[in-house]
Fold these 2 entries.
Entry 1:
Amino acid sequence: MSDSDSPSVHKDFVRQIIDGDNDSGKWGGVVHTRFPPEPNGYLHIGHAKAICLNFGIAEEYGGKCNLRFDDTNPEKEEVEYVESIKADIRWLGFDWEDRLFFASDYFEQLYQWAEQLITDGNAYVCSLPLEEIRSGRGTPSEPGTDSPYRSRSVEENLDLFRRMRAGEFDEGDHVLRAKIDMGHQVMLLRDPIMYRIRKVEHHRTGDQWCIYPTYDFTHGQSDSIEGITHSICTLEFENRRPLYDWYCDTLGIHHPQQIEFNRLNLTYTMMSKRRLLLLVNEGHVDGWDDPRMPTLSGLRRRGYTPASIRSLCTKVGVTKHNAMADLVLLENEIRDELNKSADRRMAVLNPIKVTITNYPEGQTEELDAVNNPEDESAGSRKVTFGRELYIERDDFMENPPRKFFRLGIGREVRLRWAYFITCTDVVKDDDGNITEILCTYDPETKGGDAPDGRKVKATMHWVSVDTAVDATVHLYDPLFTKEDVDDVEDESLDWKSNLNPDSRKTVTGKLEQALAGSESGYRCQFERLGYFIVEQSSQPDALVFNRIVTLKDAWAKANKKK
Ligand code: ATP
Ligand code: MG
């Protein structure tokens, strides 16, 4: 018995509908879903929710899930996007097997169905300008007005439609409309457009077509052709369902059940492909896969794992209400995963030199450092200790306030895996800036414990000057400074003013020698600083690290206080 059969597991409303259908035998026990991206951009983490839902349900119910590109809009679609979408779905861990489809493969069938609707008196060629078609639809409280072309004969409609296909007319001369009801309560059913003349090439059909079907005249029929049972989509399609149903019923074809669920929205994040494209084109980010982007390719480069993204999608669940999920939920997924699996390493990102004045010059020693306290099997490594070290500048204060427990003159702290050190003095340049910190160490405290049982209030990370490896380290923070920047409907919204100017800071870090030559994709924790990944383009002799996430949710808290 799989989880989905177990009555003890709480099920979301989509799975409850499927259970109900399986009980009533509505689809004969078949569960067939699809994920239908439009190839006009890269997939983002919102899409991941739809992917996990559609492919996940197919897996749970022993069904199938198709990948279908909804490529009815010839202009904005590109092969680059098709390939990236396929790679991203595979990376997430799902497989459409041999069921890769394109709505454009159905153009001929859709055309035949359009002729069928014309022949049955259910569609007509309308020659009003688009503006008049729009104004003629009325308002929610007032009915629309019939187009003067509504009463064209079947013969005339067929003739005009065939000549539209043959390219005899210019764009905007005619459209094909469904003949439903200009007074219908649902505005969308007031004779919606089925076909437009577009004299543009399509990325798959080339110049074969100069008329293109609308989304509404394509989507349900594509589902129907593929034998989809549950056509799962986001809430904004709820108002289109009556039209989806009308086309399937009027054509008398297999009629899948459309089910709508809530989109994933994340704080400090933008999910609209249109706006993400602007970020790319206007150079606010380096590309679709910039590690700050909410795209799957960006998150991958940032260091997120497929498991962390799938887990988020499961946890936010599906409902009928749009809401905002906290970005921290996603960050906590990767924190939890990497806490268990990632090596701990020491790296100093804002270095200041420490000289241990009572440590013999020229001497070094190798100390044992545990790789992962959460995983004994990860073992340990050696770190080199010597007279000259780097520590974080922030870990020292000349005149520390009461609550500052780290290093200050006369204070003793522990260096991780090494010794207790006590600060005796500082060296300053002519401008009074501290350039070096002078300390003594207690040889009795090797390994980090004092035999007399005395305690220190801080344990600090460090790297020895002699063995330090330089690396470029990108410190990423959210792209936006405002929690809610995703109101795509609001055209007047000055959303770019909320871009975070400090979303990327780049520093040169001093890393412990175990990190020399790290391979791209390697993830580890820099102790006390966060989780990091070696950038995909990184070379062994010129290391580049990306910060995946800090250890705690410090950014959002600090940002909220501002
Ligand atoms: P966007 O609004 O970001 O441009 P879209 O809806 O136009 O995205 P599609 O390529 O049409 O993008 O989306 C493919 C599928 O992914 C659709 O079924 C859509 O409902 C779903 N989807 C898109 N965005 C989200 C989201 N934020 N959360 C959940 N599902 C989403
Ligand atoms: Mg869409």
Entry 2:
Amino acid sequence: MGVIARYREHLPVGPSTPEVDLKEGSTPLVPSLNIGKALGLEHLYFKYEGLNPTGSFKDRGMVVAVAKALEAGHRVFMCASTGNTSASMAAYAARTGARAIVVVPSGEIALNKLSQALMYGAKVVALKGNFDHALETVRDLASRYPVALMNSVNPHRIEGQKTAAFEIVDELGDAPDYLILPVGNAGNITAYWRGFRQYHAAGRATRLPRMVGAQAEGAAPIVNGSPVADPKTVASAIKIGNPASWEGATSARDESGGAISAVTDIEILSAQIRLAGSEGLFAEPASAAPLALLFRLVRDGKIDKDAVTVVVLTGSGLKDPEASLKSVEPPIELDGDARTLAKVLKL
Ligand code: AN7
């Protein structure tokens, strides 16, 4: 079942909305076995969004945005992207026979995300400049031409993405104490907060979580309180200097009593490798930013040890292996037999 079928009554869909799905959503909430123990946290979970059909959480919002765009008669979809949005939009366009045009910052997105958009048959434009410039350009174009803008400024994207909050509450039986996630264009933190509030209002949860957002230090406009002209980080998914949903992020933070803080690239890569090596969960660098922040919050004594904490792993590690390979030992090159192999392995 996809997210529209599963959460229909909470979504802006009706009888004239076409049925679209790639069986997205319903991703696992994996309990931590080792990191939680090491940190002294009894109830640590990872919401593994990398298991969505295109490998990131973007599929949740895209399926709703695509269904609504088709309902409105659109047949050309367009977005700017740091990679995952473009992969997701291209997949749903392929599935529904629509045209996909994606604009990515030239040379700035992970190869595997680019390969997804190309394989799904999108027209890909690599635009000189950063993501913020690409988004500005696409918004300008969409205001003048008959194309459906599929970035998270499209309100249906946020509607679909809020279903991840519903799933967490459905599985835990209540909202967690902390929800920690990466913040780039800030659509997802906006969406989760809406989802938690709606479920709370509907009596499905007795409490609301504190919303904690992680930005990368070189791309931390919300933490700094002003846009970053030339954002820099190894986590290319969140290399964004002027988030479209800025207001949504600060509201989520302030209304929930949460925080948005920055972590360094070194902290991100070391959290990524620890997550993979001690939990068996490979997430892309952007998705490791919230875990890096959790390490710091625990170190600073800011997380209650018996709190229920959910870290959102927004995208699969397979999206951007190049970034991750910099922080692990390369394979051992060997020409030899079992004896030489055993010697090299010190068995
Ligand atoms: C893995 O694909 O902005 O704060 O164009 O791919 O909702 O933007 C991706 C963002 C976190 C940040 N983790 O979410 C895009 C894009 C991953 C991401 C984010 C992104 P938002």
